[in-house]
Amino acid sequence: MALIEIKDLTKVYKSGRSTIRAVDGINLVVEKGDFLVVIGPSGSGKSTLLQLLGCLDKPTSGEIKIDDKEVNRFSDARLAELRQNKLGFIFQSFNLIPTLTARQNVEAAIAKRGKGDKNKALEVLEKVGLAERADHLPSLLSGGEQQRVATARALINDPEIILADEPTGNLDSRTGKEILDILKNLNREKKQTVIIVTHSEYAREFANKVVEMRDGKLQTEKI
Ligand SMILES: Nc1ncnc2c1ncn2[C@@H]1O[C@H](COP(=O)(O)OP(=O)(O)OP(=O)(O)O)[C@@H](O)[C@H]1O
Ligand SMILES: [Mg+2]
Question: Which spans of this chain does the record mark as coiled coil (predicted)?
């Protein structure tokens, strides 16, 4: 059984008279332990696809099955529970709270979740190699370090699936590769499934599966 199965997934945006098929009839299977990279130019629908996968938005039509369950049919409460227990999100802009240290940023996410131990903050910061800088404010951290804090924050619930939207978009390629290395290690060691959408070509080398997206459609698949 596949971890995620997407069938004929479509998301249409209507604004005024124009209609945009941001995601246009996508079919895709993600197995447990995959490191999937979705690569495509700006406007190709990558973020929209990731939002649908992360159950942050609802499709216009089509279905997404996670663990063989059709998530489109879930109530909002059940979707929130799924996000809290199974998914971890990383974004291009690190979204850190500037007045809190690295550790406090992670602790705040743990507190917000309402579950779990604050001590987990240091544990996840260790996982991303940032334990020594845990007491620094974001402004005193490099871009790569800030993204590591954001990555640590995504790990507080030991997510089975890590979803990342342009996690390297604000980083130079060397620093970007360090972030991808961290995700690759989690993927290898903990069998966490990683799905990244990006326009960074170098992300390909970390993937076991690459799909290309253009105008809302998937082009090719290499395994
Ligand atoms: N909320 C929205 N309302 C209307 N149109 C939208 C909305 N969100 C996205 N779109 C449109 O859908 C298309 C796909 O957008 P999306 O953000 O998914 O692309 P992307 O591949 O993530 O681009 P980028 O690489 O620039 O982040 C674009 O044409 C965009 O303008
Ligand atoms: Mg995007």
Answer: none
Instruction: Please give the tally of structural domains in the chain.
Output: 1
Is residue 38 a part of any domain in this protein? yes
Taking a C-beta distance cutoff of 8 angstroms, is the pair 88, 154 a contact? Answer: yes
User: What is the whole-number distance in angstroms between the Cα of residue 139 and the centre of ligand 2?
Assistant: 25
- Summarised one tens digit per residue, pLDDT across range 26-57 is 999 999 999 999 999 999 999 999 999 999 99
pTM for this prediction: 0.94
> Which residues have any ligand 1 atom within 6 Å of their CB?
13, 15, 20, 22, 40, 42-48, 199
Cα–Cα distance, 187 to 172 (Å, whole number): 22
Distance CA 66, CA 49 (A): 15
| Residue whose structure tokens are 């998530």 | 71
In sequence order, what DSSP letters do the residues of 165-197 get, joined into one string?
A: ESTTTTS-HHHHHHHHHHHHHHHHHH--EEEEE
Flag whether pLDDT at 222 surpasses 60.
Answer: no
Task: Compute the distance from residue 120 Cα to the ligand 2 centre, in Å.
Answer: 30
Using the predicted structure, report yes or no on whether residue 105 has a pLDDT greater than 90: yes
Gyration radius from the chain CA atoms: 17
Q: Contact at 8 Å (CB) between 138 and 96?
A: yes
Query: What per-residue confidence (pLDDT) applies to 177?
Result: 95
Give the ligand with the smallest distance to the CA of 53.
Answer: 1
